[in-house]
Design the sequence.
């Protein structure tokens, strides 16, 4: 899942982004409202983590504009403000949750997972195709009830293919979801990763296979025995 982190304290932002990547999220970091707007205009995020005191304005304004424009992406506000009025204002402006600084990383991860679990259809807790079962909260995958070990990026790749199973997913869409902004990616790195994931699935006896649709992308399809 891809998150946008809007936080102008760079050291704090790096710590948060590091913790979230270890928890299996892909994180884009921006430090101003302007950069947040730019990122939101080109990318569909699964959730937004928003600091309120930003150098070019108040995060609350960004949140209101977002909701006014019909964008329903879950938003978690991160702030040192602890007045009850601020909390109420944030929730009224359309925030889904509120976390006060300082906070512990596991708390942030738990709150985000709770947000992403909320109904809106797209985010089932379990994804299944053939004998593959993916728990999107614990990030565990089982094939015919046997656990399989995948890297963080392989998990992201498999998750996106499973969310769109039986449909072709374009390469650039997958790259968008797996790599953050500015991450160095070799031109063939997606192919290499798909190859590795495909092998692991085959080796573990998965009934669904990753097919290459030449020049377009990839397709995860169940082929029952
Ligand atoms: Ca700030």
Sequence:
């Amino acid at each position: 899942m891809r998150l946008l982190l809007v936080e102008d304290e760079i050291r704090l932002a790096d710590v948060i982004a590091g913790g979230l990547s270890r928890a299996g999220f892909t994180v884009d970091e921006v430090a101003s409202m302007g950069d947040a707007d730019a990122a939101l205009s080109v990318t569909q995020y699964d959730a937004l983590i928003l600091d309120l005191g930003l150098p070019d304005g108040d995060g609350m304004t960004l949140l209101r504009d977002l909701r006014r424009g019909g964008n329903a992406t879950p938003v978690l506000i991160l702030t040192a403000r602890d007045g009850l009025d601020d909390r109420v204002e944030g929730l009224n402006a359309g925030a889904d949750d509120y976390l006060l600084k300082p906070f512990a990383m596991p708390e942030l991860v738990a709150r985000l997972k709770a947000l992403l679990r909320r109904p809106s259809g797209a985010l089932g807790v379990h994804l299944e195709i053939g004998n593959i079962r993916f728990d999107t909260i614990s990030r565990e995958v089982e094939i015919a009830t046997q656990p399989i070990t995948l890297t963080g990026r392989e998990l992201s790749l498999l998750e996106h293919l499973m969310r769109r199973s039986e449909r072709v997913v374009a390469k650039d869409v997958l790259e968008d979801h797996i790599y953050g902004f500015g991450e160095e990616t070799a031109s063939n790195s997606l192919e290499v990763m798909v190859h590795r994931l495909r092998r692991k699935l085959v080796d573990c006896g998965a009934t669904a296979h990753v097919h290459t649709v030449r020049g377009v992308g990839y397709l995860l399809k169940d082929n029952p025995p």
Q: What stands out?
A: The pocket of calcium ion is lined by residues 8-9, 51, 53-54 (CB under 6 Å).
